[in-house]
């Protein structure tokens, strides 16, 4: 598929549509940069009806008084992240595409669900501003969509002159209503996402994410090894069979069971250039038979054996490559020094921690723990105090609710899977939009709430200086997440 041709055709078609719209439909369409504002009165009538309920007075007031607390929490989170990025290696610095919560730009956000979620989040955010304006008797002139080839947002247009004449506190309440709606929707869709996740159940076994050997495919589920039942990843990790011997493995692949014969052991999966194992000549794909006098039957045994040494000490490493045994003299480097060299400013481990520069895994497999994953979907607190942020960060590790190759590791159906996608992305995008607009930075809602706080109106020059100072501080904290890892 020629994506360059498709993109060129879309851009040319959009330019034609854009020109015709602003020349032939001036009364309903207005340019907004490269996008079009499509105005309609239909939304005005809906806002008029919905805004009549007194509930909105409590809603608006609650979030008006909550804004300083929520905005302050957002700033505290940015400060925490500012220190956190100091431990991110330069090679792992996040790209700009991951910072922008825009489908089609952020690779972690699926386009379809991202567009649907963003439209709903923005539309209800803007509608909330309109409802608040009507509760204070301010007219809503128009509503509509922001269109750029596809719908990318929505808008509500309160009467500008009436808004300017309103009391500062009223203006602040109107601005507070938007992020307030997003925070409310965040909670609602989080609960719905968790409830749907309870319909999922794990398939017993150890799912394969990737493998050194073509014998295993991503999505395979290891169910038995030499007759030993493998109920989960932990069971596989705890096996203690003889390394370098052939074992019979029962797999579930695409719903069919098959048996393969493979060589058991802890495999070397990667080597770090210019570190002890690499310099000694150890090869990827070889099986670790022994470290010193300790026979290596699983990963835990290897880690315990390695941790018994210190940087600078020498031992022997025995491996098997399928045809012969090899012995290497390994003088351990310092894991602390390695992590510092990789960009981690404070590794938090002893300086004499041993490091030979290899990654290992049982059978050469990278596994997936479907039980822990489903527990997180059903209860973010299961991952500890920071479980919510781990739940929030799932898109940067998996395509929600699971990568397609790992769908075989859970029992589900298309309806509940798609509901999980829908509710999770509505939760995620409302959280992102709400959090961003809570921040006390102009031109975001939080900045305008700050600007219109009644106590600051006595000295407008001091008010503008305070708001500008906070805006610059918050902007720096946001940019620091991109700049920090690249300069430290």
Textual characterization of the structure:
The protein is α+β, with helices and mostly antiparallel strands and 488 residues long. The chain has 3 domains: 1-27; 33-195 and 424-487, no CATH class; 266-362, Pdz3 Domain. 47% of the residues lie in helices and 20% in strands. It has helices spanning 3-24, 42-50, 55-84, 96-99, 111-135, 160-165, 168-197, 233-237, 276-280, 299-307, 335-341, 370-378, 387-392, 414-438, 445-451, 460-487, and strands at residues 29-32, 35-40, 140-148, 150-158, 201-202, 206-211, 221-225, 228-229, 246-253, 256-263, 266-271, 287-291, 294-295, 314-320, 325-331, 333-334, 354-355, 358-362, 365-367, 410-411. Strands 6, 7, 8, 9, 10 and 19 form a 6-stranded antiparallel beta sheet that branches. Strand 12 and strand 13 form a beta hairpin. The protein starts with a helix and ends with a helix. The mean pLDDT is 88.
Helical proportion, percent range: 40-55%
Strand proportion, as a percent range, falls in 15-25%
Taking all Cα atoms into account, the compactness measure Rg is 28 Å
Number of helices: 16
Structural domain count: 3
pLDDT < 50 runs, ≥5 residues: none
> What's the end-to-end separation, in Å?
41 Å
Q: Which whole number gives the mean pLDDT?
A: 88
Structure classification: alpha+beta
Question: What coarse outline follows from CA principal-axis ratios?
Answer: elongated
Number of strands: 20
The largest pleated sheet is described as: 6 strands, antiparallel
């Amino acid at each position: 598929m020629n994506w360059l041709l498709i993109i060129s055709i879309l851009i040319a078609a959009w330019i034609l549509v854009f020109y015709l719209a602003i020349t032939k439909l001036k009364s309903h369409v207005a340019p907004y940069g490269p996008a079009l504002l499509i105005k309609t009165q239909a939304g005005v009538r809906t806002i008029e009806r919905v805004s009549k309920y007194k509930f909105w007075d409590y809603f608006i007031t609650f979030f008006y008084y909550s804004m300083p607390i929520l905005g302050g929490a957002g700033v505290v989170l940015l400060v925490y992240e500012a220190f956190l990025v100091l431990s991110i290696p330069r090679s792992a610095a996040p790209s700009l595409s991951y910072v922008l919560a825009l489908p089609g730009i952020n690779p972690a956000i699926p386009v379809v669900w991202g567009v649907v979620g963003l439209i709903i989040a923005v539309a209800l955010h803007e509608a909330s501003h309109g409802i608040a304006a009507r509760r204070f008797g301010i007219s809503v002139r128009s509503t509509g969509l922001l269109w750029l080839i596809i719908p990318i947002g929505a808008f509500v247009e309160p009467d500008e002159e009436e808004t300017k004449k309103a009391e500062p506190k009223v203006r602040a309440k109107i601005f507070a209503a938007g992020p307030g709606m997003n925070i409310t929707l965040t909670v609602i869709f989080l609960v719905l996402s968790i409830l749907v996740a309870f319909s999922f159940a794990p398939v017993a076994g150890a799912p394969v994410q990737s493998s050194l050997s073509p014998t295993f495919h991503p999505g395979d589920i290891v169910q038995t090894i030499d007759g030993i039942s493998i109920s989960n990843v932990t069971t596989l990790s705890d096996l203690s069979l003889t390394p370098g011997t052939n074992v019979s493995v029962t797999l579930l692949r695409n719903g069919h069971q098959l048996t393969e014969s493979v060589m058991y052991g802890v495999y070397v999966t990667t080597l770090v250039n210019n570190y002890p194992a690499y310099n000694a000549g150890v090869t990827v794909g070889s099986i670790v038979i022994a470290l010193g006098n300790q026979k290596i039957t699983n990963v835990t045994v290897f880690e315990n054996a390695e941790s018994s040494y210190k940087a600078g000490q020498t031992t022997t490493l025995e491996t098997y490559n399928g045809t012969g045994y090899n012995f290497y003299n390994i003088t351990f480097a310092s894991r602390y020094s390695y992590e510092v060299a990789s960009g981690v400013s404070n590794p938090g481990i002893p300086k004499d921690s041993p490091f030979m520069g290899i990654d290992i895994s049982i059978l050469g497999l990278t596994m997936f723990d479907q039980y822990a994953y489903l527990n997180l979907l059903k209860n973010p607190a299961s991952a500890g105090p920071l479980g919510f942020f781990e739940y929030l960060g799932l898109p940067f590790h998996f395509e929600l609710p699971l990568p397609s190759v790992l769908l075989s590791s859970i029992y589900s159906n298309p309806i509940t899977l798609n509901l999980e996608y829908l509710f999770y992305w509505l939760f995620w995008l409302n959280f992102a939009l709400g959090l961003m607009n809570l921040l006390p930075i102009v031109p975001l809602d939080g900045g305008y709430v700050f600007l219109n706080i009644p106590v600051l109106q006595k000295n407008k020059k001091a008010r503008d200086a305070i708001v500008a100072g906070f805006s610059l501080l918050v902007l720096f904290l946001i940019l620091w997440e991109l700049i920090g890892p690249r300069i430290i």
